[in-house]
Amino acid sequence: MAKVLIPIATGFEEIEAVSIIDVLRRGGIEVIIAGIDSESNNNLIKGANNIVIETNLDIKNILNISSFDMIVLPGGWGGTTILSQNIQVQNLIKEFDVTKKLIGAICAAPFALSKAGVLKDNLKFTCYPSVEEQIPNSSTRYIDNFKVIQSENIITSRGPGTAICFGLYIVSILISNEVKNSLKKGLLADFCD
Amino acid sequence: MAKVLIPIATGFEEIEAVSIIDVLRRGGIEVIIAGIDSESNNNLIKGANNIVIETNLDIKNILNISSFDMIVLPGGWGGTTILSQNIQVQNLIKEFDVTKKLIGAICAAPFALSKAGVLKDNLKFTCYPSVEEQIPNSSTRYIDNFKVIQSENIITSRGPGTAICFGLYIVSILISNEVKNSLKKGLLADFCD
User: Fold this and answer.
1) What is the mean pLDDT of chain B?
2) Which one of A27, A92, B92, B163 is CB 3.0 to 4.6 Å from B16, fit for a cystine?
3) Is the pLDDT of residue B171 over 90?
4) Cβ(B2)–Cβ(B29) below 8 Å
5) ipTM associated with this complex
6) Could you tell me which residues are beta bridge partners of residue A35?
7) What does the pLDDT look like over A68-95, one tens digit per residue?
């Protein structure tokens, strides 16, 4: 069974996080929601629009990544700032990269990939409009006319309105195109590629 | 400030509930998430894809609806079955209707409106494909080629892929078309009308 780690921190964008988790689980992927500093709050994390979701565990309990196929970061500036500064999250992102595993980020979160040094200068990416201004050397590699961009092991997307499509793309890579197409129909997400 | 009541029950569809809450709050609407039988579980409710969200209060604490402008039901068959059978929720839906307040439902949830008798035979509606088969006299009034349908005080929508558009439509009615258009742009939801 494919397994994906989704770290969430206070101020995460709720549509993005929940759409990704929902679509991946519909696709048969095991999703582990890992909270940043969630232990002191009963494993609950509050999003940018005051929607509180329960994590499966605190990120401190992720001791190695061998069982995971991918890490995916939801957006929201509050959450992204924390993911960009938290040493354990940054180390995890680097470890997924070094071991050639897939790494995903949507909206503001590609900034956290840039901070970890995994959004290398030869890679194309997309993100929420204007976030690319915070990412070095973006002028030739930022793509704004696709909902999802894959460049080597890095898969990026743009914002709340592309989150379902981002989830579907990940399902197509980790499971199959057939399952992705079936989910797309079931979700009534005809606006996704 | 406009105020909307969103009842959620075990098995609710997470993309739908969270997209609606997120978009309405972005639009400046006060959203109260009311759980069904949530008190025994620290106000936590688990959705259809095992995403757990925290409610603001239990539905038992909604003693009157005078401060609310609208009630909106997210879908998911598990949640819809409970909303269709819970006497307090059914009475609340009827009370919103009798007082000519707005009533919204997406995906399977129009079935819960039908159970409450507020999806009257003269009203057009939409819902998740095939759910209309459970709704009396649907053949002449079920619409399948629009993401959102308003007929008198009843606003309905189709599924996860239309949930952002449903939220935006509600913002256009409760706040303004200008705010809706601004949110649509910010959400990158160009697929909504």
Assistant:
1) 97
2) B163
3) yes
4) yes
5) 0.98
6) A8, A58
7) 999 999 999 999 999 999 999 999 999 9
In 3D space, the residue among B81, B167, B71 whose CA is nearest the CA of residue B118 turns out to be B71
Task: Strands of B41-186 (E only): list them.
Answer: 44-46, 52-54, 57-58, 70-73, 102-106, 148-151, 154-157
Chain A / chain B CB contacts < 8 angstroms: 98
**pLDDT tens sequence across A87-140:** 999 999 999 999 999 999 999 999 999 999 999 999 999 999 999 999 999 999
Q: Are B160 and B15 in contact (CB under 8 A)?
A: yes
| Residues A107, A79: Cα–Cα separation, whole Å | 11
Is residue B40 over pLDDT 90? no
Q: Residue B31 in 3-state DSSP?
A: strand
Domains, chain A: 3-186 (3.40.50.880)
What local confidence, expressed as pLDDT, does residue A110 receive? 98
Active site residue A192: no
* Record: contact A159-B49, CB cut-off 8 A: no
The distance of A108 to chain B (nearest Cα, Å) reads: 13
Pick from B31, B54, B57 the residue to mutate for testing the A interface (most A CBs within 10 Å). B54
What mean pLDDT comes out for the span B12-30?
98
Which residue, among A51, A13, A161, has the nearest Cα to B21 in the 3D structure?
A51
Q: Which of B28, B128, B121, B144 is nearest to B73 (CA)?
A: B128
- Give A177's contacts (C-beta < 8 A, 6+ positions apart): none
Q: Do B134 and B110 contact (CB within 8 A), yes or no?
A: no
- What average pLDDT is seen over chain A? 97
Closest residue in chain A to residue B162, using alpha carbons only: A188
- Contact assignment for A53 to B50 by CB distance below 8 Å: no
